[in-house]
């Protein structure tokens, strides 16, 4: 299996188990499938034979905890776009970091490009080459490679999300461990080739005329033995780098929106373009305003008398206040639309501010107010007003 196949293969899917499956689940799924698909049981079925091989390989990778951890971690890095290189994406508007499964080669990342990795001894490219080079393909390194895409998250107060903001953002991404230069071995020491499997990481065992590929126990499938692991990366060879960049969040982002900032990702190698930065923005709610698409909403409490008699109310806007005239006889719950006072959008007309009036009923009244309301009620009845006159639910 090439390293690319190794990464792109979904061993969990091969076994029909979720990636969270326990070791016991994996063993059970493998036994069941191996029985079903075994060549002895399907002597002339080529598809079953291929499935059997895939299931055996998946089991070999997932049954060993260290190999499984390595597989999970590498796939996660791969999916995060950490290992993307130039030419695997179509056009500038390409999809998210999960796209573009083609043309992946770890040696591109770690091999040969920096002299520190290949200073005559077992550099990281060699180590990982051994780890992944199960059937021996290795592309030449030192070509330009587009920078990795980077994911980041931030939270904004409601009003900054509406108006847009420039903010410093800390982004971190995987990088080669600076202490061991990616070898996973403590500085000054070298990983050595596993003597049991000769660096292949797997041992082949024949059973019923069929070759089983088994993970090597001595090196736990890595093909190398690290006698003293690097303490900074716990032997993984992968470090993290954090940098601060100023990003411009456009006006009108909504809670959970993912924004692409072209060329703000990791820098490219050898003149290749930078990757993109994707920022997922969480928006805190506002005590006054709500959002409905491009419109801002605000609910203003009013008195019954204000609606019945008409009034002018003062309403907050994003940048100040505005007076809104409420005509006499306005029903509670009516919404007034103030054009252009909503979300100030770039390149198109701003949204509206929708002002809803809602009667606030006092929880307690003093005697004078009670007397006045009783008098009002009487006058209302005398004038023939019934609040349910036009209500369809009236009997
Ligand atoms: Zn080995
Ligand atoms: Zn390290």
From TrEMBL:
Q: Which cofactor does it need?
A: Zn(2+)
One cellular component term (GO) for this entry is: cytoplasm
Q: Where are the zinc fingers (CR-type)?
A: 164-242
Q: Which domain of life is it from?
A: Bacteria
Tell me which positions the record assigns to the signal sequence: none
Keyword terms, alphabetized: Chaperone, Cytoplasm, DNA replication, Metal-binding, Repeat, Stress response, Zinc, Zinc-finger
Q: Which Pfam families match?
A: DnaJ (PF00226), DnaJ_C (PF01556), DnaJ_CXXCXGXG (PF00684)
Domains (record comment): The J domain is necessary and sufficient to stimulate DnaK ATPase activity. Zinc center 1 plays an important role in the autonomous, DnaK-independent chaperone activity of DnaJ. Zinc center 2 is essential for interaction with DnaK and for DnaJ activity.
Q: Which family does it belong to?
A: Belongs to the DnaJ family.
What this protein is called in its record is Chaperone protein DnaJ
Which organism encodes this protein?
Answer: Rhodococcus koreensis
